[in-house]
Amino acid sequence: MSVKAFKLVPAVEREMLMSDKVRITIECIECCGRNLYVGTNDGSICHFLLEEKNSPAEKTTFSVTKQLHKYLSFRKAVGELKAASALNRLLVLCDNTIMLMNMRNLEPIPTGARIKGAVTFTLNENPVSGDPFCVEVCIVSVKRRTIQLFLVYEDRVQIVKEVSTQEQPCAVAVDGHYLCLALTTQYIILNYNTGVSQDLFPYSSEERRPIVKRIGREEFLLAGPGGLGMFATVDGISQRAPVHWSENVIGAALCFPYVIALDEEFITVHSMLDQQQKQTLPFKDGHILQDFEGKVIVATTKGVYILVPLPLERQIQDLLASQRVEEALVLAKGARRNIPKEKFQAMYKRILQQAGFIQFAQLQFLEAKELFRSGQLDVRELISLYPFLLPSSSSFMRSHPPLHDYADLNQLTQGDQEKVAKCKQFLMSYLSEVRSTDVANGYKEDVDTALLKLYAEANHESLLDLLVTENFCLLADSAAWLEKHKKFFALGLLYHSNGQDAAAVQLWVKIVNGDLQDSTRTDLYDYIVDFLTSCPDHELVWKYAEWVLQCNEEVGVYIFTKRPLEEEERNSFNPDDVIRCLNKYPISLVKYLEFLVLERRIKKEKFHTHLALLYLDEVLHLKSSGAEGCKELLAKTQAKLRHLLRTSDLYRVHFILDKISGTDLHMERAVLYGKLEEHEKALHILVQELKDFAAAEDYCLWNSERRDLPYRRKLFHTLLSAYLDTSTSEEELAVAAVDLLNNHAPDFDAVRVLQLIPDRWSVQLLSSFLAGAMRESMHAQRTTQIAAGLAEVENLTYRHEKVKLKGSLTVLSDKKLCQLCQSPFREPSFVRYPNGTVVHPHCAASWLVTSNAHHHLSNPNGQT
C-alpha cells in the first residue's frame, strides 16, 4: 500500500551543468555535506554548493551555486568520485587511474600520488587500520581476478593487500575485513584477512547489472535473481526478508527505514521493516542512484535530483489518517534509531494512543485496549467521548493536537445504539481494570465516578461491589446520577462510603417502609440490622432501635447482641439502658438477657433472676392458655427454665421458689430445693410426687458435679433412703432402689447399703451391685498399695542420695576460705555443694537469687 515517503526535487539543471554542450553527460556524482561533485563524460568535474530551503508550505527546494569546473588532463569520462573529508581529498577514477585532488580547489596533490589499474573502487566505511589520517580503498584491478586494498593518506598511497578471486569481479563493497563481491556468475563474501570465502547465490552478469551495496555494519544489499533485493550479512545469511524489485534495477540506495531502487522508468521505495512497496515515482532516463549521509541523489545523463524524505512523523500521521494502523506502528518502531530517545518515547506514546482510538472506532476493543495501555493513555481522553460521564467539576481538557476527530460517542457510532452499548461495555471493562493501577493515578475521582455512572445506567451487578470497597466517587455527581436511575440502595452505600451513615440508614428505612421503590435487596431489613450492629455511631443505633424492634423483635435485638467483639469487651452499651429500651418488646428482652447470662456470662444476680422470671412467666402463661399448638413452645421454654435453674448459682432462689409455690412445676421446685441443699425435699418431690426415678438419678448426678466422692455418696444414699422409706411399700420403689444400686455401685458405701436394705432381698437380686462394690473396693485397695510403694521407692532414693553425700569428708578450719567471698570461716556452720565447694550460708543465700550461681557452681540442680 502506498505512502508518500519522498518527494523528488531538482538540484542541478542541465543548463547549469553543461550550458549548450549537447554531448556532455553525467557519469558519476559525489556528495559530502553541502558539497556536490559531478563527473562528466568529457573528463571534467563540477563542484556545486547545495543550500536546502524550506518554505512555510513545507515545500523543499535547493539553491545550487557552481563553485568550480575542472577539466582533467585525460579528457576521458570520469568513472567514479569518492570524497575523503578527513583528508580534504577527492578520489577521482578516470582512465583506470585513481587521482587524489584537493576537495576545495580540485587541484591534483603536489606529490602526484595515484593508484593505477583500477576498474572501479570503493571506500571501507568500517576501517580496520585504526589510523585516523588515512582511508582504506578497495579496487577491482585491471589485472584479471584481482582485488587490491590500499591505504590512502593526504599525500601518498600504500598498497596493503592483493587478493585473487576465482572469477573476474564486477562490483565490490567492503566492511572491515569482509569483501562482498559480484563475480561473473555469483555473489560471494570474502574475508581478505583469512582468505575464507562464502558463496551467497548465483546470478548472471551478462543478463543484468550487479548491485553490491553496504547498508550497515556487516550487512550488504544485493540485486538477486527474479528481481529480488537480497540482504546478506558477512556470515552469509539473511536476517531480513527480500524486497521485490523489478527485473531491470539499475541502482539502489538506503534511507532508513526504506530501500530505494531505480530502473529505466521508475524509482520504487520499499520498507525494510515489512518489505512492502510504499511509493513509486516516475523517473525516466535515470542511471545513477546513490545515498550520501542521509541524502538520496538520483541523476539522469543531463540533470541531478534529490529525493527529499518527508518527516517520519508526517508519514506516520498519513498512515493513521488512512487507518493503516499496523503499518504506522511498524514505521514508528523503525524510526527509533533516527530520533532521540526522549523525543521518540513521547512521539511513540502519542502514536499508540492515536492507533488505539482508530481501533476503538472500528470496535476492535481488544486491540484498542492494548494500544491504550502501551501508550499510557490518560483514560479521561476515552471517558470524554461519553457524554456526561466526566464529573462536572473535572478540569480535564482534551489533548492538543487532538488524538482523534470525534466529538463524542454519538458521532463515532452515528447513533447506532447497538454500537453505543458495545462501547459502553468496553469502557466499563477497561475502567474496572485500570482503576487500581498507575493509569488512574491523579484522577481516580474521574475514573470511579464515570464507572459508577456506567454501572448504574446498565443496572450492572458490579455497582454494589464498587461502592462497598474503597472508591473515589464524587458525591454530588454520583448521588444525582443514582437518584436519576432510582438506585436508592446504592445511593445509601455511597453515603456510607462518604461517612454519612445517618443519611444512608434514613434512605434504606424509606425503602423498607415502601416510601421509595428499589428491589436491589429483598433482605434490606436484615442488611440494616447488620449495618447497625457494626455501626460505631451509638446515637444512630439508638435512633433506629425502636424501628428495628417494631419490624421484627427476634432479628432486631441483634443490634445489641451481635456487636463486634471489641465493643463487647468495652461494654459500649449499658445493659440497663438496653433492658429499659426492650421492656416493651418481651421477645427481644428474653433474647438480650439470654445473651447477657448465657453468652457473655455476666455474673449479676438481677440479670439471672430477671431471665428466670421471664422464663417462668412464659411457662405459666402457656400452661394457662392450654392451646394445642403451644405444647412445643412450652416444652422448649420449660427446658430453658430448668437449664437456667440448674446451671446458675446467681439468681434469688427463695424469690423464685415463692413464685413457683402453688403451681404444678414440681420439677423446677425440686431443682430449687437442691440449690438450697434441701435434698430430702427435692428427692421427695421427684420420687414420691412425680415418680420420676430417672429424674431423681439425674438430680443426684448434676448436683454432685465438681464435688468430692463423700458428697456424691451422700446424695445417692439420700435417694436410696427415699426409695426404702418404710412408710410406703410400693413395689416400684423397691425395683427403682435395686436399679439404682446396680447402676451406680461405685457411688455407694457398700457397708452402709447392706445395713439399709431389707433382709428379705436375696444376694442374686443385688449381685451386680455387690460385684461392682467388690471391684471398686479391690481397685481402691490396689491403688493405695501402688501409691504406698511409689512413695517408699521415692523415700529410698532420697535416703540413698543422703548416704552418698555423707560418704565424703569435709574438713573445716579457720584457714579454709569461702569459695564465693574468699573470706575465712568464723563459725562452724557452712553450706557444701555436691562438687565439694564449701561456702558461707549467707553467701549461698545471696548467690541463689542471682543468675550467676550456676556459672560458679557446677551442680545444675543447685542441691546442697
UniProtKB/TrEMBL annotation:
GO terms for cellular component: cytoplasm; membrane. The keyword Protein transport applies. Keywords: Cytoplasm, Protein transport, Transport. Residues 23-296 form the CNH domain. PROSITE patterns: CHCR, CNH. Its main location: cytoplasm. The lineage of its organism: Eukaryota, Metazoa, Chordata, Craniata, Vertebrata. It is found in: Cytoplasm. GO terms for biological process: autophagy; endosomal vesicle fusion; intracellular protein transport. This is CNH domain-containing protein.
